[in-house]
Structures are given as C-alpha cells and as structure tokens.
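Forum: Protein Structure Q&A
Topic: Joint prediction for protein chains with partners

I've read a bunch of threads here and the consensus seems to be that you should model interacting components together rather than docking separate models afterwards. I'd like to see that in practice. Below is the full input, 474 residues plus whatever partners are listed. Could one of the regulars post the assembled result?
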Amino acid sequence: MQTHEPHQTSDSAQRLLVLPLGKSIQIAFQSLRVRFLRSLITVASLVLAIAFFCFTQVGTDLADSMLQTGNDGFRQALVRAGYDLSPVTTSIGSTPKQKWLMFLSLLVCLVGIVNAQLMSVSERVREIGTMKCLGALDRFILRIFLLEAGMQGLVGSAAGALVGTAAALIIGMVRFGPQALKPLAFSQVAFSLLLSMAVGLGLSLTAVIYPAAKAARMQPVEAMRREF
Amino acid sequence: MSHIIIRVTNVHKSFKLGRIELPALRGVNLEIEKGRYISIMGPSGSGKSTLFNMIGGLDKPTSGKVFIDEVDIAQLDAYELAWLRCRKIGYIFQTFNLIQVMTALENVTLPMIFAGMDQERAVEKGLELLKMVGLADRFRHKPFELSGGQQQRVAVARALANDPAIILADEPTGNLDLTTGAEIIDLLKHLSAERKVTVISATHDFKMLNVSDQVVWIRDGRIEKIENRDELSISVGQIDSRALQD
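Posted by a regular:
Agreed with the consensus. Here's the joint model:
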C-alpha cells in the first residue's frame, strides 16, 4: 500500500490522486454484478460453511434451552437423540468434536475462497493493469477487492446463517416436537445468527487479503499483455 | 525552438532470464519534440515494446536516463509515477482495454475522478470527449455492446480525459480492420494537430507512416534510423509505385 504523500513541488496542490468511497463501492458492486456466476461460486462455499456453523450453534441453543426447563420428558428426548447427559448436567455446550468439525469446515471454506479470489485476480489482470495506467494507486485496487469481498461476505453469511437457523429449528421441531421450540429464547437465536454472520464476514475478508495484495502490487505494464 | 517532451539518453535495459542476462536495449538516444506524431517501428523482439514502455513510465531503465517533460522518471516514487500516468500520459492499447464493467462514459470519466475532478464536471467533459470522437449517442453502452472501432474511439476519448501532453498508443490498429484502423489513425492525427498532443505509437502498420512526422526504426535494441516526414514520403511513394507495377 502506498501511504506516502507526493514530494513538495510547486504544483503539489494539484498532485492529487483520489478514488471516492462511493465510486469504489459502485465499481465493486458492478464488478460483482457483471461476474455474477463467478461471485456466486465464491459465495456458495461461504453459504455452506456458515450454514453448517449456524446450524450447529442454533442446535446447541435449542438443546440447551430444552435442558434448562428441567422438564424430564425433554431430558429423555435429548438422551434418545444422542446427547451425552449425566444426571447433573444443566447446560450443553458444543462438544470438542463439534468444535473441531466447525473449525475444519471454516478452514476448508477459507481455502476455497482464497482459491476463487486468486482466479478472479488472474482473470482481471488486464483490467487492473489498465486502471493502474489510468493512475490508480495500489490502495484503490486493494480497496475495491476488499469491498467486493465485504459484500460477498455479508450476502453469503446472511444467507448461510438464515439457512442454518431454519434447518436447525425445523430438524429440532421434527425430532422433539413443536413444543420443544417454546423455551428457546429469540435473543439466543439472534445472537447465534449474528455471530455466524460476523464469522462469515471475517472469513471472507481474511480470505481476500492475499489475493487483493497480489492484485494491488500488479504492474501497470500488465495491461499490455496480449493474451487473455 | 520547440520543446523536448521526451528525452532518452543512453538507455540500456536487460532482462534476467534465469541466469542469463538478455539485453533488450543497448544504448538508445532519442529526443521527441512536443506536439509531433511519432511512430516506433520494428520487428517483434527488437526492443520496440521495451522502449515504448520506458517512454510511457511503465518500466525503468537498467542504466541511462528517461526524461518525461524534463522529469527523470527513475527519481519518481510509486505515487508520483501514478500521478504522471494519470495526468501527463494517455494510454491506448491494441486490445482497447476498456473496463468491461463500466459504460463508455464511466470509462472516460474514471481518469478524471482519479485526478480529483468532481463527478458533474467529469461527466460534462466525458460527454464532450465522446462527442468529439463521434460517439455522443453511445455513452450509456458497455464495451461489449460496441464494435472494435467504437471501443478504440472510447479508448481515445479516455486517453484524452486529463488533457495529457503525451498519448502512447501500443499497436492501436492491430485489432482493427483496414478501414476502421485508418479512421483511428486519422482521429489520432487530427488530435495531435489540433490539441498539440504528442502521439507516440508502436506499430507494424504501414498506414501509420503516412501521417507520422517522424518514424523511429528499432532493430536489435538500437535505433537503426530516424526518418522525417519528407524523407519518408519518398520511400512510401516508392513502395506504392512498385506495388502498382506488379
């Protein structure tokens, strides 16, 4: 990233290069819209990973709220469903195995997004080179890529979180009956939903750092490349 | 006494290919006056592109100096180079290189936005430039909705966005048919005469020679000869008369 200002010269006031935020958002949005299918593939892996993450979170919330009621029927239903409950257990956290699975799924998703974003950078070599020939600074390119990843992250993780929550609630209802949902607090589900979205957004932004830095460092002469 | 816009002094450039050092330019000296129309001719592998990139501030020499508007480009940092590319030089590419996701107008206004011009003035000037290249009614079209010649016209308008002193055209007619290519050449020539913009183009296209003030022939990393317009018309005339006899 370029951080230093131009040297002091007689016309330093005019030596200015800018890309307003509104314009960068517009460019990022248009890029996503035009390459809709590619963006969709990048987003799909995020949707799946976040759906799984959120499904596990909300499932745990549901089981926990059922246990908190102290209702013996619920306790037995949970044990039948495979929860390992001793008579003294009063709350259910996610098991180490679940945590490990969630971590792995997020990791796989991260690698998938990095891969997709690197492809997108190499597809856009000429576009990036051209923008640099027109005077774009490294940080303009970096910002556009980060904004794109941010938008993909928001949409993908929101979709994933909703799918995951819906799946967890529906499966919970089928397994334990409709009354099992009653003790479940809305705030708890909302928290899991927001947490999943934050994780998804973080994942999307983390995954784009390397590809975006690679794009930003690209030389303007790449614009002259003949081949696609 | 005319103003020298580009001065290349004793420039060498070599590229490393593994352990082998490959010289692309072996001592090039060149002065280009403001407002002229220059063609750089040479077979591929002659160092033509390397020289062209050097003049365009896209590459730095291994040794020797390149001055653009009396500024030594080796002394510039990344920000200043970007500024130079934005304000002093307009680029035209063989493959047009319009930003695919933007309309014709957005393509033309982008360099003005980089240069800090406000949106309204940029749009006004962008429309004016598109009108000048004869695409006033196409400003809302995306590149893929335009023909090759129209795309190159948009690229010409974009190159002029910040009133650059120099227009660098890399094989501007390479992807166009004969008639469209000739139209683009006419447009460039017209601009060079009317706006006093220095046009430098790397080319294989012999149609370019007719309009060039000066032709720089490159071979094996050196300047073989520099021909002025008057000398040139004779040799082109000879080609024509020979062609007629066949």
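Residues 21-224 of chain A form one domain.
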